[in-house]
Backbone:
């Protein structure tokens, strides 16, 4: 295996390990920290940029391996149709080896590209799921808070109604007291007037008796 196909195999193995880590059932807090680090770290962004360039080269290798596989398959079919494979065992073995290597390189580069797409999609799906869980938790807290505020507001409204009733009753008592006070003042004035008239009449009658 050449150097670039060896590097492609190492990249495929790294993708398999990464995919296993992504789908492993980790605790929510640990998963959240890991995905936030992967999505916000500048170092990870630089590594991802380098991997994009590497996948471009892998795509070129995939196209080349695919063309070689087609070419070797065509040569093998021609050799079988012409009968050369039966006469020359070495040429048949050579064609079979070339076909095997071409298919191996095609599958290696193809799976590497396919797994890169699966990894990207899986990463963003899990990240969206984490954001959705956070929004749900916030919404749940806001709903609980609003329900508590609603209960508190209902209690406050009840207290306000009770205080309003008590205030109205107190104002009614004050009005009754004012009326009684006015009546008492009027009665007091009337009593003073009658007492004055009585004293005046009593004084006049005593003066007449002395005469």
Residues:
């Amino acid at each position: 295996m050449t150097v670039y196909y060896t590097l492609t195999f190492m990249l495929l193995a790294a993708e398999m390990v990464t995919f296993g880590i992504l789908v492993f059932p980790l605790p929510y807090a640990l998963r959240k920290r890991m995905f936030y680090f992967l999505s916000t770290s500048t170092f990870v962004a630089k590594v991802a940029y380098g991997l994009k360039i590497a996948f471009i080269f892998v795509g070129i290798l995939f196209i080349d391996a695919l063309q070689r596989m087609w070419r070797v398959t065509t040569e093998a079919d021609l050799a079988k149709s012409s009968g050369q494979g039966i006469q020359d065992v070495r040429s048949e073995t050579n064609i079979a080896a070339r076909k095997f290597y071409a298919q191996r390189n095609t599958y290696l580069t193809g799976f590497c590209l396919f797994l890169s797409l699966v990894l990207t999609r899986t990463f963003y799906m899990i990240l969206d799921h984490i954001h959705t869980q956070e929004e749900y938790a916030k919404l749940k807290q806001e709903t609980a808070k609003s329900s508590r505020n609603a209960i508190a507001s209902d209690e406050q409204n009840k207290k306000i109604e009770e205080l309003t009733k008590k205030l109205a009753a107190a104002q009614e008592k004050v009005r009754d007291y004012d009326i009684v006070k006015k009546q008492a003042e009027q009665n007091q004035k009337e009593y003073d007037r009658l007492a004055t008239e009585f004293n005046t009449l009593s004084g006049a009658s005593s003066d007449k008796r002395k005469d």
Observations:
- The two ends are 160 Å apart (CA to CA).
- The helical segments are 3-23, 28-40, 42-82, 84-87, 89-210.
- DSSP finds five helices and no strands in the chain.
- Residues 3-159 form one domain.
